[in-house]
């Protein structure tokens, strides 16, 4: 498996009830991210670098600082770094499942 991005959890908040949590993560991509899924919605804002996002069922998307994207729960996606950088991600996930499942 290629080098995985560094994921630094900045904040986690549990929803009322016992099913979901919101998680804010700083993503540092040294070499992109191979195909993976999340157990909830991902919303990501690009801070630094240049990326190509591949999401099943969509055309590839070029991303630069100031761009953002969303990926629905369970949808396979990957990231290629044209110029390594960082992103700020916010997830709304099922809290008892792993944050990332690498495929």
What does the model show?
The protein has one domain (6-90): Jelly Rolls, CATH 2.60.120. The chain is mainly β and 103 residues long. It is built from no helices and 8 strands. A hairpin with a 5-residue loop joins β1 and β2.
Q: Taking Cα atoms only, what radius of gyration do you get, to the nearest Å?
A: 13 Å
Count of helix runs: 0
Record field, number of beta strands: 8
Q: Give the name of the CATH architecture.
A: Sandwich
Low-confidence stretches: none
Helix content: under 10%
The top level CATH class name: Mainly Beta
Mean pLDDT reading: 92
Biggest sheet descriptor:
8 strands, antiparallel
The CATH topology comes to Jelly Rolls
Name the CATH superfamily classification: Jelly Rolls
Rounded to the nearest angstrom, the distance between the terminal CA atoms is 9 Å
Order of helices and strands: EEEEEEEE
Q: Which secondary-structure class do the elements indicate? A: mainly beta
Shape assignment: globular
Sheet-strand content, in percent, reads: over 45%
Domain count, please report it: 1
Summary of the model, kept short:
By secondary structure, this protein is mainly beta. It contains no helices and eight strands.
Present the secondary structure layout:
Layout: E1 6-14, E2 20-29, E3 33-37, E4 40-55, E5 61-63, E6 68-71, E7 77-94, E8 101-102
Antiparallel strand pairs: 1-2, 2-7, 3-7, 3-8, 4-5, 4-6, 4-7
């Amino acid at each position: 498996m290629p080098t995985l991005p560094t994921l630094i959890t900045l904040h986690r908040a549990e929803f009322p009830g016992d099913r979901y949590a919101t998680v804010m993560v700083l993503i540092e991509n040294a070499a992109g991210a191979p195909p993976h899924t999340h157990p909830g919605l991902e919303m990501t804002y690009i801070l630094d670098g240049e990326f190509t996002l591949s999401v099943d069922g969509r055309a590839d998307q070029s991303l630069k600082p100031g761009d953002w994207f969303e990926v629905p729960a369970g949808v396979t996606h990957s990231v290629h770094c044209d110029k390594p950088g960082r992103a700020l991600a916010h997830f709304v996930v099922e809290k008892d499942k792993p944050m990332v499942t690498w495929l």
